[in-house]
Amino acid sequence: MPEPLLIALAVICLIVGAVGTVAPILPGVPLSWAGLLILKFVPSVKDNVSWAIIVILGIITIAVTILDNILPMWGTKKMGGNKKVVWGATIGLLIGFFLGPWGIIFGPFVGALIGGLLSGSKFMLATKHATGAFIGYIAGLIIKLITVGLIVFFFVVALV
Fold it and tell me: How far, in Å, are 15, 33, 127, 130 from residue 86 at the CA level?
């Protein structure tokens, strides 16, 4: 495959992955890492990024992906919530994505609160459950953003 096409594919993976850090539909961190991996196979750039960096970021990508799925459930269970609260937070994040930054931040909380109320919890208890889900989602989001930031850093360093 010609170099410009490989670089374009790598950039597309990186950009879609960066968007995927906040869009729960896309596997953001793995896509960004794939972009860096593709860049490693570009002849004029391959020596600018080491296999050690690729492997270390790959391991971090796997760990972050697992953590991102565990943290919201952990936060919810820590505050006494159930699966409906987690599902509510996920749906709230999906809907919030279309409402801009504030929707992304507060969508999981509102969704978890609704999930808690639908599961029969009183308002104050549902708020507590929603807080746990919200903290879990925000922690996962921060970890993903940091990881993608690292990947972008090494990507840019490799290109310049």
Answer: 28, 27, 13, 8
